[in-house]
Input
Amino acid sequence: MAADRHLQLAAHLHAPPARVDSMLEEAGKLGRRIGSELGPLVAGYQTNLPRLEKFDGAGNAIEQVVFDGDYHRAGAIVWGSGLLEHARTAGHSFEQAHLFYVASLEGEMGHMCAATCTTGVARVVRWAGDPELQRRFLEPLTERDAGKAMRGAQYLTEVQGGSDVGANVVAAREATDGLWRLTGEKWFCSVADADVFLVMARPDGSSTGTNGLGVFLVPRLVDGAPNGFSIRRLKDKLGTTSMASGEIDFADSLAYPVGDPHRGFGLMVGGMLNASRWLNAVGNVGIMRRSYLEASAYAVHRRAFGQPIAGFPAVRSLLANVKTEWLAALHSTWALTALDALADRHGSGEPGIDEDDLRFHRFLVNANKLVTSQACTAAVRDAIEVLGGNGAIESFSVLPRLLRDSVVYEQWEGTHNVLTAQVGRDMGKLDLLPVVVDRISVLLRDQDGTARIRAALQTAEADASRAIRDTSFAAWHFRGVLTRLVRTYQAALLTAAAAAAGPELGDELRAAAEVLIAAHADPGYRPEDDPAFAGRIGAVLGEDV
Output
């Protein structure tokens, strides 16, 4: 991590000061194993993907997912870093974020998805599980030794509803032994090899819609046999192919209720989905960082027409786009990580968490996932363009796999339209806009050279206010308005970070803020009319190329 000065700056700006050195040291230890150990393992099992074995040799149902041995060896490195161990302690979000970021530099989304889901399951159990449930499951879910650890998964999606979770019909029936039994089909079940499943189901007699849903913890095995479930098939996905996703049928599966079995939707969103959206963004930051490293290193060494291609303006512009998106996502996601730590402590019952922090978290966890996932795919594509034909060669670089995975990240835990609709509802219901505008304004306070950001904020605020009042306007235009609002926040963060940084990093960050706001929130900007354009691109790149 010593070479990643922007990560160090973000950590010192956003993370608890007393823990920064230890979390960077942990991340550095994992980072030293990425290239030498994890990378070759990940590359090795991309052509030997998980397969489903429904029966053993004697014909007994086992519903087992079989992986390449290198997949498990890679998992031992990720789990051994302590990434999941930190999920045991409320508020250790930065420790997890730094480790997740470093592991994502290798693009191993097969394990990062599993780590994300396991984090969410651990949170839900820690927040709302009764003492016996916590005793049985919390420590195994946060075990450092991958050979002993339980992996978690969350199953919401049903074929008739998709993102419309209120249409879910998987049924929960209370049994005579005080436990519950689940019956029905879940359509998109990632981490199908998990040891415990967090499942949303509708108790008999509950109301329709999301209000009638409960959260249940379903062990994979009971007395060594599959717990009343069968995997219909594994999904053939575009990306994250080393992680098994499938379709699962439950038939009287034993289940433990987590919290009130008739009021589970808020728990699932707060404990599981919000954690997934936060870590999704962290993964996007890692993918963008790796994409920039691949493209900038290639541009320095690749010669064409008698010179390194890093000297060509069109290539420099592409590289600056990738770096700008990485820096913007790094700072907005590390700001979100600080809020996630507060939300986690609040969910665990800690009193005294500021209400405005929780409200801003409600906005940013969804809005940041929307913007960073879109930006990530574009950044990987730009990096591939720098490599030209080599960028499409699987054996040449990690970029083709990162592109496929980034497209999956865009859909994972809320499509763009679903997230936009959620933020729109929250804006109107919870009066979030004043909190958002205030947070951006505070970042810009006493900052010179921010006229363009301030103008973008004023326009975005007016348009967001109109969307809150006019549902027809919101239906057509709020996604674009929301994107501009987040871009304005990111530019303000970069400007504030520049003020706190030394001259070299400060110049890069200020230039990145200008590039970002010009590209995404200033409709009147024309680079063709900007005499400072080339100098700004050079400032973003600094001494990299």
